[in-house]
């Protein structure tokens, strides 16, 4: 079974750390793709998301954006159902 969540991150990004912490607190498996110094992975992220900033987060096939969007979904009570659907 693959992880229901995919994150493109960099090592020292505080938003990346916060996104991973939120997912860990919910006991969600995620695939982390580091774009640190990897121009190909960064280009892949930009092409898929249309954005250059990290983190970029997908739940299943749904691109939700960055940490702010992830946290907003959690505050709205919508994150858990998205995560369950992606399982």
From TrEMBL:
Residues 5-64 form the Glutaredoxin domain. InterPro entries: GLR_AS, Glutaredoxin, Glutaredoxin_subgr, GRX_bact, Thioredoxin-like_sf. One of its GO terms (molecular function) is glutathione disulfide oxidoreductase activity. Coiled coil: none annotated. GO terms for biological process: cell redox homeostasis; cellular response to oxidative stress. CDD domains: GRX_GRXb_1_3_like. It holds the Pfam family Glutaredoxin. One of its GO terms (cellular component) is cytoplasm. Keywords: Cytoplasm, Disulfide bond, Electron transport, Redox-active center, Transport. Belongs to the glutaredoxin family. Has a glutathione-disulfide oxidoreductase activity in the presence of NADPH and glutathione reductase. Reduces low molecular weight disulfides and proteins. This is Glutaredoxin. It comes from Kineobactrum sediminis.
